[in-house]
Design brief:
The chain is α+β, with helices and mostly antiparallel strands. The protein has two domains: about 150 residues, no CATH class; about 110 residues, no CATH class. Helix content is about 50%, strand content about 20%. Strands 4-8-9-7-6-5 form a six-stranded mixed β-sheet, with helices on one face. Strand 8 and strand 9 form a beta hairpin. The protein is elongated.
Length: about 260
């Protein structure tokens, strides 16, 4: 739920700007155009440019909602489709707007085609744009992958003599290392999250990795902070482990599987 709220907060300014730009105004807000000299700006159709950027922002705002949907459904394919669409739309528009002088006004006695041929994008600029796109895609892909796997519920499986936690910061715990297993009818906020020392905090609900507090010491979390109950695994050596899912019944099922195998 928190991811949807964050997305709404981020997307809303896009929609507001899109509506403003649809009116053919606000070209001064467009990066690159707002730094041009007045004489250069006069060569461009500000109204057409503003409307085009407004359409871009509206499409991006709508695409943003596919990311929390992918996280909620735990659908990796939807995440990558959303990511690909976001990148294609964004950088496709950048290339479109910066090639062919598409928004340049035709001069006196000049055709639109003639205006588009003036000052074409040089080979050097094209290479710089391509490098920028590739670099940005790699960075965003890394961030996107981190958020996707960070927000996913952990996959806990019980094997022959061990409990395996497949998740960011996941690990395998042998039965011989487990001292006791408890089920607290409280969420992690009530138990005490503490300070993240080396872990994932994401949107504030999905917590994975190493956390520490004065009350409980060091602990390893694989939890959805607002969800109860919470599984507590006490180890003979190493930090205690806490596990919870968005769905409380899933947490109870995993607890039963662990206790049945360990006891």
């Amino acid at each position: 739920m928190f991811g949807w709220i964050i997305t709404l907060v981020v997307a809303l300014p896009f929609v507001v700007l899109a509506v403003f730009l649809f009116r053919g105004k606000g070209a001064f807000l467009i990066a690159g155009f707002n730094t041009m000299s007045d004489s250069k700006k006069a060569e461009y159709d500000e109204k057409a440019l503003s409307k085009a950027v407004g359409k871009l922002l509206l499409v991006l705002a709508l695409l943003m909602f596919l990311f929390p949907l992918a996280i909620s459904l735990e659908a990796m394919w939807l995440f990558w489709v959303s990511f690909a669409l976001f990148m294609v739309v964004t950088f496709g528009f950048v290339i479109y707007a910066n090639t062919g002088n598409r928004f340049r006004k035709a001069g006196a006695g000049e055709s639109v085609e003639g205006a588009a041929e003036r000052n074409p994008m040089t080979k050097g600029i094209k290479i710089a744009v391509i490098i920028g796109i590739v670099f940005s895609v790699l960075i965003l892909a890394g961030i996107g992958i981190m958020f996707y796997f960070g927000e996913k519920d952990p996959n806990v499986s019980v094997g022959d003599g061990y409990v395996k936690i497949d998740a960011m910061y996941g690990l395998t715990v042998n039965f011989s290392d487990i001292k006791e297993v408890n089920l607290f009818d409280r969420n992690m906020h009530d138990i005490g999250i503490g300070r993240r020392t080396n872990g994932y905090g994401g949107f504030g609900q999905a917590l994975k990795g190493n956390f520490s507090s004065a009350e409980n010491g060091t602990k390893l979390l694989f939890v959805y902070a607002d969800s109860a109950p919470t599984i507590h695994i006490v180890r003979t050596a190493g930090a205690d482990i806490f596990i919870s899912y968005r769905n409380s019944e899933t947490t109870r099922t995993i607890y039963s599987q662990i206790t049945s195998a360990v006891s």
